[in-house]
Amino acid sequence: xxxxxxxxxxxxxxxxxxxxxxxxxxxxxxxxxxxxxxxxxxxxxxxxxxxxxxxxxxxxxxxxxxxxxxxxxxxxxxxxxxxxxxxxxxxxxxxxxxxxxxxxxxxxxxxxxxxxxxxxxxxxxxxxxxxxxxxxxxxxxxxxxxxxxxxxxxxxxxxxxxxxxxxxxxxxxxxxxxxxxxxxxxxxxxxxxxxxxxxxxxxxxxxxxxxxxxxxxxxxxxxxxxxxxxxxxxxxxxxxxxxxxxxxxxxxxxxxxxxxxxxxxxxxxxxxxxxxxxxxxxxxxxxxxxxxxxxxxxxxxxxxxxxxxxxxxxxxxxxxxxxxxxxxxxxxxxxxxxxxxxxxxxxxxxxxxxxxxxxxxxxxxxxxxxxxxxxxxxxxxxxxxxxxxxxxxxxxxxxxxxxxxxxxxxxxxxxx
Length: 416
Hints:
30% helix, six-stranded parallel sheet, alpha/beta
């Protein structure tokens, strides 16, 4: 089953070594200039306002405002909004200001390519997180093609949660799809890989799809509208905002399987017996991307892979477990007292162990950054490169991937 190329779906396309992450102050990579001024770091969000984006940005800023980073760099957060031209303009201003590092959430995988290349030519390091860009000089830190943490061959949030929903429904039923933000690489890859799985099951009927914008309240409103037109659905496949989906179903007196991402309320409902699967992109990627960018500044452009893929969590009704405090301990995966919309995955034991619930909720500079491990094991497999770069590596060609990932047959790269 082939997945449509992302380019055809985009309107926008047409218009640290670990020990040295005590960063520039302790390495030859110091960016203090002769007159004592600090190097400039920017955190650029294409949009904001939902919990995931806010938490990811807070974690990135908590890294960038740690004392060891502030000794050599100043940091500024810029919110560009959902217009690609505004993000392009903002990045141009950052380049002109002398930026050393731009860590950013891209609104489009293709529209930013020329300005990123312009910045790279001027010596700027670009690290995209969660969403990805196709410009080769940028670094991507993303979960969108990642495999399940419990099975390294079971790749893609979209595909694995789609398969989870199919399994819960026994291969039969009417379903709705709650998508994310239109035009982003994250939504496109999630949707395309999910659709490729659903297309393999004639008994699965997609009755409607809508955009919840990865927002809980919008998802609840849009799901309620969809339920009014389709009150006989059997399940819902959702991107972030699935807590709003569940609340809309509860308001309608319905309890059907839901697959979604990592909101606290959803996992709480799973722990109480709601049928479903919780996976998705952790907001920890914001903090991880900032650490990756700082490692590049300290240790050079070859110190990390250009395409970094991090595994996806996978929580079910059977494995949802409340945390007694504010940390992930003993296999717990949601917080009893956190807000419904809180996106639970704010820690990574290998890449962001210094993270905290507080830092995710509000910027709380980390007293000490934990050095990144060797990142070579996090390099995205070549057969999934087309999803983040739009083309295959040299020596590879586009084709159905039949080995090395589940489900087999999804479009990817195979050795030429």
